Amino acid sequence: MAHGEKINKRKENKRKHIVDIFRHHPTLSKAEAKRYSGYSMDTIMTSFKILKNTGIIIPTEGKQKEKGRKALFFTLNHEKQVYLGITFNQKAVYTSIVSFSNKVLATAKVSIASNISKEDFTRVVLQQIDEVLSKNPAFLTNLVAVGCTVPGDIDTKNGILRSYTLMPQLKDFNFNELLTNKFPNTRIFFDHNISSMIAYILSTSDIVQRYDRIMVVSARAASAVGLIYKGAIVNSRGEIGHIKVCNDNQQCICGRNGCLDCYFSYEAFVKLLQQHNAIDEQECYDNIIAKLNQHYTNRTKDIFENLDIALKFFSEALLDAINVFSPDYILLTGDLFEIYNDPVAQIDIHIKDLFHDTGYISMYKRALMEFQSIKTEAIAHGVCLSLIKQDWGYTA
What we know:
- This protein is an alpha/beta fold.
- It folds into 3 domains: 3-76, Orthogonal Bundle (Arc Repressor Mutant, subunit A), CATH 1.10.10.10; 82-199 and 377-392, 2-Layer Sandwich (Nucleotidyltransferase, domain 5), CATH 3.30.420; 212-327 and 335-373, ATPase, nucleotide binding domain (Nucleotidyltransferase, domain 5, 2-Layer Sandwich).
- The chain contains 15 helices and 16 strands.
- The protein has helices at residues 3-24, 30-37, 41-53, 118-133, 137-141, 175-182, 193-204, 207-210, 266-275, 285-297, 303-325, 335-338, 343-354, 362-366, 376-392, and strands at 28-29, 57-60, 73-76, 82-88, 92-99, 104-111, 143-150, 153-155, 160-163, 173-174, 187-192, 213-219, 223-229, 232-238, 329-333, 368-371.
- Strands 6-5-4-7-11 form a 5-stranded mixed sheet, sandwiched between helices. The chain has a 5-stranded mixed sheet with strand order 14-13-12-15-16, with helices on both faces. It has a 3-stranded antiparallel sheet with strand order 1-3-2.
- Helix 1 (3-24) crosses helix 3 and helix 2 (30-37) packs across helix 3 (41-53).
- The mean pLDDT is 91.
């Protein structure tokens, strides 16, 4: 890289840093920006001039000091650059418009049937996009990129959904074709839901400041795990559902027997209810989760025991992941955990019952584990945050 280009990169990095300071302090004078950043006043003045001329910051009112010269205050122009996030699950399609400032400017949601056809799904997604963009004419004009984040197994390079357990009819759905036709001159980004969820956690939680090694475990259709190390996503596609947890001959879709997914997954729980005639045909996802929670809470004979065994198997698989990743903090999220009322306490009981010696579970004992309910709407926000970090990330 030429010397002049390196200098320009450093200047750009400083401007991005100043934009990030605005995210935490929405109204700033140049003197305040100098204090927060540690840059010289010359750097601040040059950076403010460029950010103002490009429309990134705009003048605003601020609190003046009682004495001395009046300051000029600025704030971020939230609509100057916006990002569109799209996701879905078996219940609905969700869209978000997020500013480069990280502020959510608009959201939209429409319910769908879990057995919706590819043709109807295409129509609904396009309608949702049009609806959220119509909330402000500036959104389409200032759209920088589109992020599409999906559950199941997605080819992130080509934007093709290989499979999604809860909506098998969408196998091989081509999101790239759909979105490039809709936005032919706009950057399109594809990701998996757990990646976008982790991006959301990174931007909205202080756990990254408190812990170096964070393991995120999501359980919606099945179990997936991601690892954050010192604020960076190291792994976002771990499939702990294919850890072998018992020796019986229940065959998993991966071809092996005894995988966690055979016992602790939405599909396994539906089969459990069907075996005990405790489910109606075409019953929706939310009702099934609520019924499972009711049976667990009421300790319904046979159903409770099987749900508890499933959580025991999950606890064993979780220990394997903990021993590999050695996290300081474990975050559980997802509807399947909500079946168990207090999943952290129940998992702790199982682990203590399984392993009395401290040596094998020392990594588990060292980590703090918590449950947090993160809804799918946040995942549409998260994919936008991933894009914003790509464009506006800086080196401190």
